[in-house]
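[Backbone geometry]
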Amino acid sequence: MSKFFDTLKKDSTQAAYRIAGTQVIKATKAGLLNVLRRKGVNNKHINSVSNFLDTELGTAGLSTAVGLMLSHLPSFKNDKRAQSIAEEFRVGGLALAGNILANKAIQDFLPKLQSLVDLPNISLLQSPKIRVEELTTAPVYEELEEEKVSDDINSLVWH
């Protein structure tokens, strides 16, 4: 049972870092927008920045930037907790950006790749169905043969 509580304690600490990270990102965004207002930046531009920071990519960029800044602050250099939070910001931001890029690549490029390579329909790669001939103590299975309807791979039919 001790291992259970050790795991729970470790995971709770990691969750606390992530919660703190989320709150710091929200506060950083609000602070950045306030600085822009005080500098006299046009509301239209402030709204554009705010809208960008509300996107996943904006959050990823802000998280990575905050993590990099915290990592280089002299007062946090020897603080393990601050370095853990900084690492969470950096890794979380980069992972979020990586997922955005991966999703975009899959969404945009996979259909094009499939059309260029003329990949078969994935459902055709399933194994053939089997039929039970009779019920005995050990069922007898007969594997059905693949029947080719035409030379076109897309017209293969499994019984």
